[in-house]
Model the fold of this input.
Amino acid sequence: MLYFEAMEKYGHEQVVLCSNKESGLRAIIAIHDTTLGPALGGTRMWNYKSFEEALNDVLRLSRGMTYKASVAGLNLGGGKAVIIGDSASQKNELLFRTFGKFVDGLGGRYITAEDVGTDVKDMEYVRMETKYVTGISKALGGSGDPSPVTAYGVYVGMKACAQEKWGNDSLRGRKIAVQGAGQVARYLCEHLYSEGAEIYITDLVDDKVKRVLETIKAHVVKPDEIYDIDADIFSPNALGAVINDKSIPKFKFQIIAGGANNQLEDEDKHGKMLIEKEILYAPDYVINAGGLINVANELEGYRQDRAMKQAEAIYDIVKRVIKIAKEQKIPTHLASNTLAEERLSQVGGIRKIFSSHSGSYGRIGELMKH
Ligand code: NAD
Done:
């Protein structure tokens, strides 16, 4: 009964347990909401200490995907899968092909992709058993690395914040502190640099910074110095939970806009602390939706120019989120939830369960049948 209660608490439609002795597969697939379309979300492989821990994670993450797709204006629902196991030692072809069979058994209600602990190679095994998988390599007709599109979305979202804060969306001459010099940061910095921003950058790995400096000029700082920079904008593009009790008191930034997931360590507490310091926060799942937009495009025959064009909409979405936050006097991360819920109730109202989904998913649903 407790499991049903957990599902009811967050409004999940369906949770599927997958077990197979031969491959050692133990997985949970959670479909949160298919009002807007088939549930899309990556497969996380993690050494969960207990079944409960894995269940909590998949319920939380799948719900997050419903909100992300809704805000991004995609015709997709929210889903996620977790495979219980050690991604360093327990991955093999049989495991992912077996998982692919389970995904296929859901007939398109759930579409998977890579996530923490899984990669493009794993998804190619999944692809051998089901067409309901995205984020595969370009060589196999997929969309490949989503980072350029994610970075572009972060860039335009940052400009929307600048427009709000300074009445002008130019980033020329703005000082921007970029945390992380990985895939997203690399492409983001190229946009920022071409617009004339002054960039401060850091990474735990020196080579990553060096690679970024091959195409742009930036001041390099140590990882623990990034929060102290006297810059206009902070752009977290490394790990989550970097906005916390320790970092916020150091902030002199006026805007936070970056691609990292789950930036606020404690949403309520740290969201409020940012408001008190009059720092405008671009909610992470809104501004980094380019990655999801990218894989969603794969479902309709991938074209990067179209994905980029869709990611451009993040500019207006961020502005709408800020407007709601101001009108309702709520933090921006709550305003984005409001926007997501509005669209869900406008489009759906009722959940599309089982038989109705193929008729109601529009173009994506149609294409997935082929
Ligand atoms: P990445 O692994 O390429 O880059 C992350 C970088 O952060 C690495 O170079 C790492 O060394 C660095 N790093 C880790 N901890 C750090 C610290 N304390 N200080 C400084 N640097 C640190 O990952 P990515 O694909 O660029 O993704 C970055 C973030 O954006 C992640 O949180 C990811 O979940 C999120 N995200 C990425 C995409 C995408 O399309 N790649 C989409 C949505 C969200």
In short: The chain has three domains: 2-66+75-140, 147-337, 340-369. DSSP finds 15 helices and twelve strands in the chain. The longest strand covers residues 25-33. The radius of gyration is 20 Å.
